[in-house]
Design goal:
mainly alpha
Length: 193
Amino acid sequence: MAPSRSTATARREAILDAAVAEFAVRGLHGTAVEAVATRAGVSQPYVFRLFGTKKALFLATVDRVMDRLVAAFGDAARDASRSGGDPLTAMALAYVALLTNRDELLVHMQAFAACADPEVQELVRRNFGEVARMVLALPGASEQTVHDFMAKGMLLNVVAAMDLTAVAGEEDWARICIGAPPEMHIAQARGEE
């Protein structure tokens, strides 16, 4: 008897949850599918049956993380527009909140590191482009707005990945790199310094 659809869906989600945790630390080439399977509580052959290859599992994992990011940006912008708020500020604050999920942040960074692979590069470019187009479509946005938003986002990625806030009080260079709180970075990106 085949597993029910909800059970298969739940197992797929459990595998992707496990893959996020494993790929976050070891990346595409350093992660063993066996480790993902063990963490998910399934067999390694089952993972291969669902995803085919380790790279396909990595792509599905990255796609899931990036889909969440794009969805969070879209939701934040729509909610802000409906309530009369600033969509760009809402998107930036949504991103700051996303950065608290360390595993998803590191998967995002691992995806950038794996861009030597053409399929990974295409996936990352597609999602990066989607975010850039979302920003450009905002009322009053310009190419400079997109540039500044994306640049600040990448800086925030690196700051969060290195956990610079943990040493900012002791290391001047870390405090300088972090710079202003996220709200000030947002204002600067909008040209409201």
